């Protein structure tokens, strides 16, 4: 999936590890300025925020924007669930783990070969459920890795030779909006992402495409 984004981003200028900390709207010049943690500033005429709703709320509040508005209240009510994911390698690639119905606390088990990855090693991904992920989300990687390894051994009798822990604080939106995007009427500011158009990857795509069509019409 990341390759699709990389191909689409080839003609774009991308600034990585560049955290926005404040937004400023200049009514005279009709321009936005975006201040960053590294003391750089970006300018634009139209601003699109596609981060998870809680991060957008934090940014808008720090910028003293939309306070008291219905739009900000709507954003505050959007909830996400966290998820811990283990990426690992099996000693025995032929293990019939992937034909089983996942047992608690596992929510999803994926053999990476199912995604077309051709390798002699048994790469896998194990997704933990919301309860387990919340409980151990802030625990150290070695502790979480050890717990997942023990669970795999206990539930399935397999012994991974390596596990890498990934944390998604905003893994899935729990109460996505029906709207494809949001816009405060007075500002050239738009909010899109996986919390719109019923949520998920498809919702995020619909959200972005809907905004593009709207901007083209304008």
Question: What can you see in these coordinates?
Answer:
- The protein has helices at about 1-10, 55-60, 70-75, 130-135, 140-155, 200-215, and strands at about 20-25, 30-35, 40-45, 45-50, 80-90, 105-110, 120-130, 160-175, 190.
- It is of the alpha+beta class and about 220 residues long.
- The chain folds into two domains: about 1-80 and about 175-215, FAD/NAD(P)-binding domain (3-Layer(bba) Sandwich), CATH 3.50.50; about 80-170, Polyamine Oxidase, Chain A, domain 2 (Alpha-Beta Complex).
- The strands form three sheets. The protein has a four-stranded antiparallel beta sheet with strand order 6-7-5-8, with helices on one face. The protein has a three-stranded antiparallel beta sheet with strand order 1-2-3. A two-stranded parallel sheet has the order 4-9.
- The longest helix has 18 residues, at about 200-215.
- It is elongated.
- It starts with a helix and ends with a helix.
- The model has no long low-confidence stretch (mean pLDDT about 90).
Write the layout of secondary structure elements.
Layout lengths: L1 H8 L10 E7 L4 E6 L4 E4 L2 E3 L3 H10 L7 H7 L3 E11 L15 E6 L10 E7 L1 H7 L4 H16 L3 E14 L15 E3 L8 H18 L1
């Amino acid at each position: 999936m990341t390759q699709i984004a990389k191909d689409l981003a080839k003609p774009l200028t991308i600034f990585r590890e560049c955290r926005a900390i404040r937004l400023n709207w200049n009514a005279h010049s009709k321009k936005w300025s975006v201040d960053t943690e590294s003391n750089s500033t970006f300018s634009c005429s139209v601003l699109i925020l596609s981060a998870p709703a809680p991060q957008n709320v934090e940014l808008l509040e720090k910028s003293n924007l939309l306070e008291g508005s219905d739009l900000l209240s709507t954003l505050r009510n959007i909830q996400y669930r966290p998820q811990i994911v283990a990426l690992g390698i099996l000693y025995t690639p032929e293990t019939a783990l992937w034909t089983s119905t996942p047992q608690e606390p596992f929510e999803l088990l994926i053999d990476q070969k199912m995604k077309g990855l051709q390798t002699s090693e048994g790469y896998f991904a194990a997704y933990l459920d919301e309860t387990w992920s919340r409980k151990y989300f802030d625990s150290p990687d070695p502790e979480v890795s050890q717990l997942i390894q023990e669970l795999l051994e206990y539930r399935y009798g397999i012994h991974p030779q390596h596990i890498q822990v990934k944390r998604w604080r905003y893994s899935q939106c729990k109460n996505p909006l029906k709207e494809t995007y949001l816009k405060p009427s007075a500002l050239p500011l738009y909010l899109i992402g996986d919390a719109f158009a019923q949520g998920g990857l498809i919702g995020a795509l619909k959200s972005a495409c809907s905004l593009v069509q709207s901007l083209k019409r304008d």
